[in-house]
Amino acid sequence: MALPRHLQSGQADSGDYWPGFVDALATLLLVIVFEMIISFRSRNKCLSWFNAFHFLCLALTILRLTFWLFCLIPWRWTHMEFYCLYWLPSPIQFANISLLALFYSQVLLGGRRSRTWWYAAATLYVLATLAMFCFTIL
Which residues neighbour 39 within 8 Å (Cβ) at sequence distance 6 or greater? Predict the structure, then answer.
């Protein structure tokens, strides 16, 4: 098996490796925070679909960015830290996609939906998200 090019020529690794996806995640984090600031300054409802979606995106991005930053620095991982930072974004992503499904069902049904339907859908959403978190943790 051939050695990497920097080892073949006798040059030492400079250790200046910074992958572009970390920069992309950091930029995404700034965009989400900027969108949330605009939303709150325009006095939108705090419990809107828009804010819930962006809050979940913010949590997802922070967890992913933390994981990849800890992968880049010399860090002694405990098993629990690695497990939590690696797997916890999955249920948050599931909650985000489920939230989109709830939003589009509200848009499609419009004024035809009843309060009973809303409580049933919200209960199902919370239970499915909690089940996904429990499945991930166990």
Answer: 48, 50, 51, 54
pLDDT for residue 128 is more than 50: yes
Q: How far apart are CA 25 and CA 89, in angstroms?
A: 13
Take residue 125 and report the two structure tokens written for it.
């959403």
CA distance 71 to 76: 10
Q: pTM for the complete prediction?
A: 0.70
- Rounded CA-CA distance 94/124 in Å is 13
CB atoms under 10 Å from CB of 51, counted, come to 16
Q: What is the Cβ-side half-sphere exposure of residue 5, based on CA atoms within 13 angstroms?
A: 0
Hey, how many other C-beta atoms are within 10 angstroms of the C-beta on 100? 13
